[in-house]
Amino acid sequence: VHVSGTDGAAREPFFSPDGQWIGFYSNGQLRKVATSGGAPVTLCDAQNPWGTSWGADDQVVYGQGQEGIWRVAGTSGTPELLVPLENSEQAHGPQVLPGGEWILFTLRPADVSSWDAAHIVVQSMETGERIVLVQGGRDARYVETGHLVYGLNRVLFAVAFDLETREVFGGPVPLVEGVLASPG
Asked: Counting runs of H as helices and runs of E as strands, what totals does the chain give?
């Protein structure tokens, strides 16, 4: 499928919560284009985003590897650093959780050699408190059923997650085997 205005160089696609916009990365910029067509609009300059999502609060969050997790308005603007990282940590795949205070992402500490050995964490955007939810997993997403869905060693897992207490409970359940993941 060709999206107008992407010149075939778009990657990291993501949708606005209302489905009216497709966001993407191209040529050093996060951009968006209306699903009905038209010219793309630049949100901000960015370098090689590592996972991008568009929250219900009209904010786009994206990972920048060792630079942390950033936020920019869905209408465009100057990016703001949300989650600074320490000592060669890397962050990927942020998602703002319902309620807007907590952000879910994959954190790869400096002493971890594989994304499959990374941690799935939540961090408060107000206090900076960070909670490790899963040790050994990547690319987690919260789904409305009250679960985190994540990958580990080419298997897609789900685990129950309480938004209020920010805790996982029960054991992970394998959903799909043989899932491809990006190198890392």
From this structure: 0, 16
Residue 130, C-beta contacts closer than 8 angstroms, at least 6 positions apart: 107, 121, 122, 123, 124
Cα–Cα distance, 97 to 54 (Å, whole number): 11
Closest CA to 137 of 154, 162, 161, 123: 154
Digit-coded pLDDT (tens) for 39-84: 899 999 988 888 899 988 899 999 987 889 999 999 998 999 999 9
pTM of the model: 0.88
**Can you tell me the distance from the alpha carbon of 149 to that of 156, in angstroms, rounded to the nearest whole number?**
7
CB atoms within 10 A of CB 178: 7
Cα–Cα dist 130/121, whole Å? 7
State CA 35 to chain mean position distance.
21
Could you report the per-residue pLDDT of 124-174, keeping only the tens digit for each? 989 999 999 999 999 999 999 999 999 998 899 999 999 999 999 999 998
Q: How far apart (Å, rounded) are the C-alpha atoms in residues 4 and 6?
A: 6
The half-sphere exposure of 2 on its side-chain side, counting CA atoms within 13 A, is 5
SS3 77: coil
Neighbour tally for 11: CB within 10 Å: 11
